[in-house]
Amino acid sequence: MDKGGQSEGGKNAIVVGDAAKLENEEFGVYELKTLNNAGEPLEITSDADGNLWLFVGTDSGFEGKTVLYYTSVKAALTAK
Questions:
Q1: What mean pLDDT is predicted for residues 38-54?
Q2: Looking at the chain, which terminus has fewer C-beta neighbours within 10 angstroms, N or C?
């Protein structure tokens, strides 16, 4: 599977944003951040039985500790 790398998407994945804080750069202060790909939908094709996989993840070149919490993930699928 081609997910790309760090800030570049691949054939099977797109980048929807970054984890940088928007308001408070203080270490240990968490912020909620909403990301979406509304402007860049990903076209996918299921297998012959209609199955497909959805994966969500983080790719980083930062070599220190990073803590991220995904509070929700939503997917909207539309048949063509």
A1: 90
A2: C
Dihedral of the alpha carbons of 13, 16, 19, 23, in degrees to the nearest 10: 180
The answer on pLDDT for 80 being more than 80 is no
Q: How far apart are CA 22 and CA 32, in angstroms?
A: 9
As a dihedral over the C-alpha atoms of residue 56, residue 59, residue 62, residue 63, rounded to 10 degrees, the angle is 100
Closest CA to 68 of 32, 38, 40, 22: 32
Spatial neighbors of 71 by CB under 8 A, at least 6 apart, are 32
Cα–Cα distance measured from residue 24 to residue 58, given in angstroms and rounded to the nearest whole number: 21
> With bands split at pLDDT 50, 70 and 90, how would you rate the model's confidence at 47?
very high
Mean per-residue pLDDT for 27-41?
88
What is the Cα–Cα distance from 9 to 13, expressed in whole angstroms? 6
